[in-house]
Amino acid sequence: MGFPRMSKILIKFGVLLAAVFCLTSPLSAQNVKTAVEVPFEFVHNQIVVQVRIGGKGPFNFLLDTNTDPSVIDSATARELGLQVGPKGAQASGGGTEKNAFYPTRLTQVELGGVTAKEIAAAALDLSKFAQKMERPIHGVLGYSFLKDRIIQIDYANSVLRFFAQSPYPYIKLGPNTVNVIAAQFRYEDSEVIIESLYVNNEKMRAALDTGSSGGIALTPEAVAALKLEDQGQEVEADSVGYNGAYKTKVGVLKNLRLGRYSVDSVPATFWLPNTGHDGKKFDVNIGNGFFQSFIMTFDFKGKMVVFERVD
After folding, report:
1. Buried (b) or exposed (e) across 254-292, using 16+ Cβ within 10 A?
2. CA-CA to 200 of 20 to 30 Å: which in 44, 117, 131, 140?
3. What is the pLDDT of residues 65-106, one digit of tens each?
4. Average pLDDT, stretch 11-17?
5. DSSP symbol at 74
6. Domains in the chain and their CATH numbers?
7. 208-233 b/e with 16+ CB inside 10 Å = b?
8. pTM listed for this prediction
9. 31: phi then psi, degrees, rounded to nearest 5
10. Cα(112)–Cα(298) distance, rounded to whole angstroms?
């Protein structure tokens, strides 16, 4: 007698659930009233936000999902009177030079209506970034600021949105489409990494890097695995990483596929050996040049990223 009643309950629950799905599609962002919006400038394919540190500023900061901890320019750290550790270490990242960083803390960070306290940071010379950006760059908001947050980057409207809950509450229950792609990520060695990217039909690990102004970049190991060493042309202008300038090549990939989204003849950067990109935990780096065609949502609480295409 109990089982028929349970079946009726499940059927009713299923009808109710279907009704909910009709009202709120799992594959599009929902209106979440708790979102805090913060404007940004998109300069040379970099996200530049205005930040106050300890009540002072505003300062120009970049937003970088693949930097940990956050960064404060060495000169700005001195200007603010921050306590900086005496022992430095070699910064990781692109470049053929050496740039040491020193541990410090940002007592209070204000980004629009978002406030955080006691943020771990590294004091680092960002003067070469500033030259490339053609404006002062005082710091970088990285994982030490972003962890446990849900942040949406709306490139078309130059707005960041901070949510208390995911704007895609049912995304795990629905399949990916051409226009909305969701993927679990892991955070490893200061990188947001997904496993579900295919390049020329080869499955590859991809780092999602909002600190990169480029689109698609292949590590030296990925270039070799795809047998592209003899392809591409060297770029005259230098790229700039935390360790200074470095040379690259550019080429074209036959195909790139992410979920049901697929594109042919994709321009790509080929990172060269000995430029700070060897031995990475990923094969492909994806930056703002690619992301700007989407609304990007990084859920650092649930380790989920959503690409929503903008037509």
Report:
1. eebbbbebeeeebebbbbbeebbbeebebbbbbbbbbbb
2. 44
3. 999 999 999 999 999 999 988 766 655 565 555 567 789 999
4. 33
5. H
6. 36-162 (2.40.70.10), 168-309 (2.40.70.10)
7. bbbbbbbbbbbbbbbbeebebeeebe
8. 0.85
9. -75, 115
10. 19
